[in-house]
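Q: Protein A?
A:
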Amino acid sequence: MKSDLFTQETLPTRDGSQITFTFYTHASIAVDAGGHRIYFDPVGENIDWATQPKADLVLITHDHYDHLDRNTVKVLNGTGEFVKLKPGEKFNPFEGVEVEAVPAYNITPGHQNFHPKERGDAGYILTFGGSRIYVAGDTEDNEDVLSIRNIDVAFLPVNQPYTMTVDQCARVVEAIRPKVFYPYHFGGTDVKTDIDALVDRVKDITDIRIRPLE
């Protein structure tokens, strides 16, 4: 596949520059910021990654198979190297770009073993052009997530039983109030996410945009 076959969207940042998102599948997205291509959790066996723009940075939220494919990473950057931060860590990979890791974990009884807090899985907040983009990874509506603020664009996972229910996701949106919200990671299980119900819950709070991220 060529890059123009994937849905892309360009948004203005707070300082008037631009940031472009490419939506691949499930939890796999790319961000173009300041001339750099940053991939988040690039996985997808039906995607010819060799035809995609080369990676300047690959960020991995955690090492589950639907978030980390080492062969894909090597195809994208030629080395197989990726960055996986622990919550609380941050760095500046490029001039004008900051990446901060925030906690990602489950709290629902019986679900904590999917993404236990003590394992240190992460979501990421990428700051560019004064705008803050939150890619949550696999998480639920825990207190760390609910305390996040000042988010321009949020990617929040909505699939069961591994991440958030519609109600949990709506609670996060109500708390952090992103300007733009993309549900992602909402397929691949026997329990189908009621996206229409999610839209109805948050449409008056945020600009919710449904893209091919099942």
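Q: Protein B?
A:
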Amino acid sequence: MCSSDLKLLVILCVAIVAGFVVANESIPECDRYDCPSYSLLYNNQTASIQIREYEAARWARTKVQSFYYEKAVNIGFNRLFDYITGENADGIDIDMTAPVAVQVIPGPGPFCESTFIISFYVPSAYQEPNAAPPAPTSSDVYIETLPETTKAVQMFPGYVTQWNELVEPISELVEFCDEQGYQYVSNVETVCGYDSPFHVANRHNEIWIDEIGRASCRERV
């Protein structure tokens, strides 16, 4: 067993003994919106960093190729919003959830477009063992079940309108993971927003980095 895996196991055991495995406790927005469930394994309130274990869940997703984060998010959000407001096989409205997640996969070179995967969590009424949500009518939108995963999470406030506003929280989270010796998927981050554009005060945002402390000791590629 890797030392990082042993460290994560100890954290998990302590959390269970202390009764600290609580889903969504630190996200006030999840009182208003349906959110994916997770178990809290580690919480550093000073640094606003957590480690969470998320259950497998269905998400509505769309991919956008672009040089610009802001443009990609706008295109992807509109596609998914159209899906939940009637552009689906049943022609019904589907409840808005949180967060709006944007996975950023950099292009292979400085002059290549990046891939942005924008996702809406599918409401609990459509999560397993319940039936899946109605199929999208747009070929650009698809439903995908993402597997259980452990994530490092950096929480931060404010509006996010440009990519350069994300550099600092991403850097802080990467530095934390490196200091703790955690394995993670490098150069692929997910940016999560929990509030509507009209919510001004106490906005909640997160950076997610996946595959923290997995059992494999092999180098990730």
